[in-house]
Amino acid sequence: xxxxxxxxxxxxxxxxxxxxxxxxxxxxxxxxxxxxxxxxxxxxxxxxxxxxxxxxxxxxxxxxxxxxxxxxxxxxxxxxxxxxxxxxxxxxxxxxxxxxxxxxxxxxxxxxxxxxxxxxxxxxxxxxxxxxxxxxxxxxxxxxxxxxxxxxxxxxxxxxxxxxxxxxxxxxxxxxxxxxxxxxxxxxxxxxxxxxxxxxxxxxxxxxxxxxxxxxxxxxxxxxxxxxxxxxxxxxxxxxxxxxxxxxxxxxxxxxxxxxxxxxxxxxxxxxxxxxxxxxxxxxxxxxxxxxxxxxxxxxxxxxxxxxxxxxxxxxxxxxxxxxxxxxxxxxxxxxxxxxxxxxxxxxxxxxxxxxxxxxxxxxxxxxxxxxxxxxxxxxxxxxxxxxxxxxxxxxxxxxxxxxxxxxxxxxxxxxxxxxxxxxxxxxxxxxxxxxxxxxxxxxxxxxx
Amino acid sequence: xxxxxxxxxxxxxxxxxxxxxxxxxxxxxxxxxxxxxxxxxxxxxxxxxxxxxxxxxxxxxxxxxxxxxxxxxxxxxxxxxxxxxxxxxxxxxxxxxxxxxxxxxxxxxxxxxxxxxxxxxxxxxxxxxxxxxxxxxxxxxxxxxxxxxxxxxxxxxxxxxxxxxxxxx
Lengths: 449, 169
Fold this sequence. Notes:
The structure holds two protein chains of two kinds.
Chain A: H1 14-23, H2 30-56, H3 71-95, H4 101-126, H5 152-183, H6 189-197, H7 205-238, H8 250-276, H9 285-316, H10 319-330, H11 334-346, H12 354-358, H13 360-387, H14 402-425, H15 431-437
Helix pairs in contact in A: 2-14, 3-4, 3-7, 3-8, 3-13, 4-5, 4-8, 4-14, 5-6, 5-7, 7-8, 8-9, 8-13, 9-10, 9-11, 10-11, 11-13
Chain B: E1 7-12, H1 15-27, E2 34-36, H2 42-48, H3 55-80, H4 93-122, E3 140-145, H5 151-161, E4 165-168
Antiparallel strand pairs in B: 1-3, 1-4, 2-3
């Protein structure tokens, strides 16, 4: 595939931006309908599996003592990680004033919300008695009990719910001016729908004055939140004394991995979607080149973290730590350990080459490797450490069953279903922010001071 | 709902023409202008001499409330039902920082949004004011509230600045 133009400012007018983005909300193409049906079918597989889990219990999943956390927690961490790229691109790059974020941030932010929604299902699936999940929340009750605030699992409840709420707020706030733009271009029942959703937005100076300030503060608040959420998820592991988990590098290692996996998923979604929705002129080579550079940067941090984990295990002189890492590379699950290292540490290094970054087919293939590699990273961290704990006679190799894979498939269906429905209902490319990057016409020559 | 107001509505293609009109109108004593644009624009903000939005006070108040609620809730609940974990003090401060931080962010963010809703959509709604769908597309709109006897003079000022369309509303 040929390399496309590398420019920050699209050579189109404000009016064209509105019409091109509104056109994505028209009659769905055959490819879109097929993708949506596929997603619904995958979700159906997960729903049936969940009903069977409710009926027969968690024994259906492949828990093999001492491995009592496996595919569900792996997939939970995977989806929380996917949710990181969105807020990184929408909040952190907003504060850095990166011009390339404007075309891709809406899709990544929607991805964040739906990924965190997917992740939030897993603690509920995993706790066994799903109908009492609300015991995790601190509410007044007859037993005069409060939750244990020193438990990382409770920190997670607060971190994930805050992240989901703030990400959703950020997405909705960004959408309002764009929904108003769509409202003024459509007619009939769609006009009524978008009028209700636009909350009376007209783009007056008073509205922009408060909106732009609030958006800045939301970005400033979301920035430490992005870094904190996956740090808190990493403490689910690092606060214990299990070999392979009890490391101070876990928080930055998890945050870098989360952003890496999130951008991998952004590439997987956007490369086909831009073609299906015919927005290739709005999301093009310039944006993918920058996404690829961010992937390379975070992939290189992961490379360093993997190397440092092995170094620390060796240098610590702790035999349990050393055994865990020996088993990751050469134990019965060596294939999972090497899948993680090859897909994440090595494949990402291909992005040093401009030709690879400019080739969308290559980028798409690399993004699939990243998704696979990052799922396996969480699998390896969880399965290898639990398989080989302090008592060698207790060691066991976990054996995931159809109930594990059914829920995994269902989670992808649940996520894709919401993402695809969003892409057809609301502007997937941020109309207002793209317009901000296009200079407005002037009657006099020369720009603003 | 805001009362329907009368005046002159001008539509501009060029941003410098719109800012010229805003400055001329303000010099002429028209301070209560409503300027529509599809995206925020610094030139328009400067021409209107806008003050910094007070939405930051909502953010500050929300953040401080969240922080106090986060720490207060944990302190009270841990004292109310004391569970000794790992030999740590019942109301140990370090673990409380995480939930305290999360609630600071949560309420700070929600209060910021509430600030926008209250300050722009509730206190100064644009419903009832003259509007054109082109303003969310690619045109800049300026609505000047004025009495019918000022229509001609105000409309002439907007045309002189470069308005492509002027109508009484």
